[in-house]
């Protein structure tokens, strides 16, 4: 009489099952845990960190990064890059200030002009990429230089005060105690998260990032999508510029310096692959919160402003390394 013994399951069955089910969310789970840890540490070491005023300030600062980050997330998912955000925001703040205070357009006309120009300069960068195959890094680097130079030239590097306006008061202030910029950020997050996950446009963006040549052979209009992607980031930068001008009470050609690095860092930390084809708006949202909390905590702890850049750079490098490791682990799990 023979007896059979049930096979012993591999020791790593539980971990393999976890990776299979939640592997694509590991980056987001890790970010959420890191943010909770940061709140615990900073809440106990940085005076005033958990105060209501500071938390509202965090929301306002997050909006300056987050609004543009939604568009940049889709750009990077498509396999491209946009480094023009900082000067674009500064230039937009100058245009809305000059349009409303000096050009006689009124507040509404100045805002409309700023948003239209933002869409146009973004579309121009996308057109250069789509029509002439100019690398997006070069196209947006040129835009970075042009917009930054124009913003300083038009203002002689001096602030341009905004006129008194209830509209600017609301845009630069709060609604029901919540910063208006934060409300705009969250509304736009919902819009872009829906577009990325539930629309044909979103699926096309992922397809282009995965393999642009195959997407073109499948009949997708790659060039049109690229133009629209960069036009969208230009529009979002213009929105951020309007909100920044309203918050500061002036347009400033030197404002938002280095913002593009915070935006890209938030997107990468959020798990979007720099090679394209993978990413999520939720991950970017967590990346925005992480970057904002780190920056706020360093200020409250009295860390030297120059050393803050060192910390930020180390965080970006570490995030890329984690991104690569998670990608390789997910790929290995799928192959098993």
Automatic annotation (TrEMBL):
One of its GO terms (cellular component) is plasma membrane. Its main location: membrane. One of its GO terms (molecular function) is transmembrane transporter activity. CDD domains: TM_PBP1_transp_AraH_like. It is found in: Cell membrane. The keyword Transcription regulation does not apply. InterPro entries: ABC_transp_permease. The chain crosses the membrane at residues 29-52, 64-97, 103-124, 136-155, 175-196, 227-248, 254-274, 281-304, 310-326. It is a multi-pass membrane protein. It holds the Pfam family BPD_transp_2. It comes from the Bacteria. Keywords: Cell inner membrane, Cell membrane, Membrane, Transmembrane, Transmembrane helix, Transport. This is Sugar ABC transporter permease.
């Amino acid at each position: 009489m023979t007896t059979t013994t049930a096979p012993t399951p591999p020791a790593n069955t539980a971990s393999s099952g976890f990776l299979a089910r939640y592997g694509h969310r590991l980056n987001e789970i890790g970010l959420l845990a890191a943010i909770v840890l940061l709140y615990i540490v900073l809440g106990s070491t940085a005076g005033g960190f958990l105060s209501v005023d500071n938390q509202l300030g965090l929301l306002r600062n997050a909006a300056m990064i987050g609004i543009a980050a939604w568009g940049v997330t889709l750009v990077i998912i498509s396999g491209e890059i946009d480094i023009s955000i900082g000067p674009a925001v500064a230039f937009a703040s100058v245009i809305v200030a000059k349009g409303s205070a000096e050009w006689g357009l009124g507040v509404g006309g100045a805002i409309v002009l700023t948003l239209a120009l933002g869409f146009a300069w973004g579309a121009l960068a996308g057109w250069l990429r789509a029509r002439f195959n100019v690398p997006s890094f070069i196209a947006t680097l040129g835009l970075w230089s042009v917009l930054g130079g124009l913003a300083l030239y038009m203002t002689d590097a001096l602030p341009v005060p905004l006129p008194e306006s209830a509209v600017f008061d609301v845009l630069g202030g709060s609604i029901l105690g919540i910063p208006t910029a934060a409300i705009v950020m969250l509304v736009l997050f919902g819009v872009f998260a829906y577009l990325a996950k539930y629309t044909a446009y979103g699926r096309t963006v992922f397809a282009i990032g995965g393999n642009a040549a195959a997407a073109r052979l499948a009949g997708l209009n790659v060039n049109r999508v690229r133009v629209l992607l960069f036009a969208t980031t230009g529009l979002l930068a213009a929105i951020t510029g309007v909100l920044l001008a309203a918050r500061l009470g002036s347009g400033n050609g030197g404002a938002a310096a280095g913002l593009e690095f915070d935006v890209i860092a938030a997107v990468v930390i959020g798990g979007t692959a720099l090679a394209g084809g993978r990413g999520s708006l939720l991950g970017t949202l967590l990346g925005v919160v992480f970057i904002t909390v780190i920056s706020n905590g360093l200020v409250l702890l009295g860390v030297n402003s120059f050393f803050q850049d060192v910390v930020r750079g180390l965080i970006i490098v570490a995030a890329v390394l984690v991104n690569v490791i998670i990608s390789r682990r997910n790929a290995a799990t799928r192959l098993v």
